[in-house]
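ingest -> fold -> write
write: protein_1
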Amino acid sequence: MESTIEKILREAEDGVLDFTWPETEQPCDGICQAVNPPQESTGPTRLPSNVESWSSHYSVRESALRGCYKCLLVYHSLSDHDEIMLLTLAPGSAGIVFIVKGLPTNIQLVYKVGSSPPPWHYVCVTRVSQLDSRRAEYAPILQSWLDSCNLTHRKCSAASTRLPTRVLDVFDSNNIFLRVCSAGDVGQYVALSHCWGDTAMIQTTTLNIRDMEQRVDHNDLPKSFQDAVAVTRAIGLRYLWIDSLCILQDSTEDWQTQSSRMAEIYNSAYLVLAASRAKDSTVGFLDRDPITHEDRLPWQVLGRKSLNQRSLTKIARIQNPRDQDVSCVYVKQLWDNHCTRRHHSALGQSPLAGRAWALQENLLARRIVHFTKDEMMWECVECLKCECMEVDNTTDGMETSGGLFRRAQLTMPKGLEISPYDKFHFWRCLLARYSALKLTRESDRLPALSGLIKSWQALGHGKNLAGFWEKDIVESLVWTVITRFECKRAADYRAPSWSPFSLDSVDGVGSKGGVEFEYPLYKHRITTRLAVVVDAHCEPAGLDDTGAVKSGYLILRGKVLRCPVITAGFNTPAAYKHSADMRLCWDLSVNPLVFPTLTVLFLGHNRVSETGGYHISYALLLLPSKEVSGAFERVGMAVSWLGLGDEMGKLFPENEEELKIV
């Protein structure tokens, strides 16, 4: 005799099951139990991250035929496949995810937002659009995020604040103009973070500012600016800040003044719009990228329909016996079950993410919405959301660099959540990441950090020296160049030699760029200082005391060795000279004929093991300065591995010296 489950399977039209969920569920020991929440639960319950369940196609089918409707959904969604693994709700995961043997992607059971949720709590809510344009959809989604944040997030203050020096008044899209604000003007404004690119675009200068104050023709604005106007008006705001229009681009004085206020401008904005997908201002950000051929590859589900990242395959229509509501269940494709990683990969690979100025614009914002090629992502001080809703309920939604920094602005002053060393370690990691980002003018390398520096100074971190904190200066000196091209001291002075921002890399065709560098792993950090800071200072090059510098020095007292620089390979840019216990890491080329003697200043060491093991010792490689008599310039780092016996005493000289490094 045919069972109820067999009848439901047989009568499925176009592969869509149609049934009423039972009032009393059949006990089951199948795959569904790995993710079955408590009876009283109203949503996903966090389970241990190591909970896994491997099931064969046959075992899932048998559980379904015994009367388990949860296993029926699983079996029907995977009916063409022999073996599956079910991952439960782990930190950063997208709820319940099925890893299917033979498929290059994972899949998930979902229902559409706004529809009736099915009786099984681990069918996840989702929002999916099949439109290439966001224009018809973004406004209500963005407004719902803003409303929720305004209502429930005390830390994401949306109160009126002092307006920047200039803002665009976009109240009437046919009568946009540049408003010059007085010191007492307050209000709410949107700020745009975007790639300038190589394409010429409209700018405000000393020559046209009077015209801009009268009227800015909407048609003269590039597409990204037009999109920013549209979003500002859609959320009911009047003012918009765009750097190229609100800063006089031909005035050094105004540029220095306004760039020094970046921390306040982006931190005080009601909302920051990140035009992540746009390589320049002509592209716009309200459209999605068209679905590619790769997106359309036929990953077969139920043997008849294909999935892509913007579509769902319907597998069931379920009637709830309690309220008679009807729920529809779909299958959704996932490229990676770790949704936080997947979404931030989309951000990290966007054109905007590769720009140096954009880093502080992102991190300083209390609320920012990223318009990526596929969807919108929301970040604020207290939460992370995405258009498809996958990350909304993840357990590690705040573990993003932006989220961490936004929280740090509030938690660091109290000193309750993170140790002083960890704060500075976070900053050093930020500098290393920043070194890989691009600038049109390398002279902007320090100005593009100024806003972040000011925000940290407001937390009591003290004096900043060309990107390094004086309180952490010894540890900050332990960087090594990882750029694969030749490195040279920049022709135009940008920073002291002890800063990597003093260097340029030159590729094979002569193009110059910044220098990428890295710090030791956390466990290999300096734990014992051997050098003491006697004095340190950097002289600002302009009006911004945390921006560009025109000179700087560092006086250290410590143990010093002097040795010849006559070893094959030592004059190779960024070359490593290995021995059993030593590595020399050069910042730039060194000519032993000009400078035959190398000065080595020991900074500190790390005890890797208390019993046995070894020390890692770090030292600066110095040569006499060409510009300042009696001073030295950094040319590299020495890293040594030594046992804990007499070797340590033999390495470090007894006498200490004071050296001035410029």
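write: protein_2
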Amino acid sequence: MPLSYRDYFHLVILILCVPFQFYFSIRKDVTNTSKQVLELVNEVRNTKNNWFTFEAWKKTWTNSLSWFVINVLRANKEEELDESPAIEVLEYRKNHGIEDKSSKAHKARPPGLWFRVGQVVEHIYEGYKGVIVEWEFDSKKSNTPLYKILVDEDTADPSLPGVLNVEQDQLYLLKNTKVSNQLLKNYFSSFDGSQYIPRPWLQRLFPKD
């Protein structure tokens, strides 16, 4: 069956489509390649601006210095405070007439301690109450911890001093009990209903209590 003019026309159109498809395919690849080149140029430019300019180095140096101050110097300062109290601690004691038996911080609680700084206790035999402001325990020298307590002026004999050192086995713990002592405000900031809250300088001396 012979081909008509219409058939020849359709055949020519189909043949011409092939090179056009090839052309547009190449053009698309070139466009993508150009886009990738532009992205690479922009990335290089950003890298240059971020790392190889005075402002970039200034910003990097400032950030590094801030990190050093926050993480290194502050850590060293906190470590020093653990080893010994700050000068303000000693000045506070001196200004308020607080006897300083030991200014070294107690970084750990030795085994065998029953009570903590801020807890209210009562003397088993004498009957007076008091709040613990300090403890000392050297197992090599003594078998019993020694507590310094502010004596409750309402329950103690008037002849007793306001501050006493008492061995652990002569005390027992009281709950929800307050004491009255003129030196109380020098050691503690408040009472939470169960025990007294030490002031910051006292917390530094007994951080684990």
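write: annotation protein_2
The chain has a mean pLDDT of 75.
The helical segments are 5-51, 54-83, 87-95, 184-187, 200-205.
pipeline exit 0
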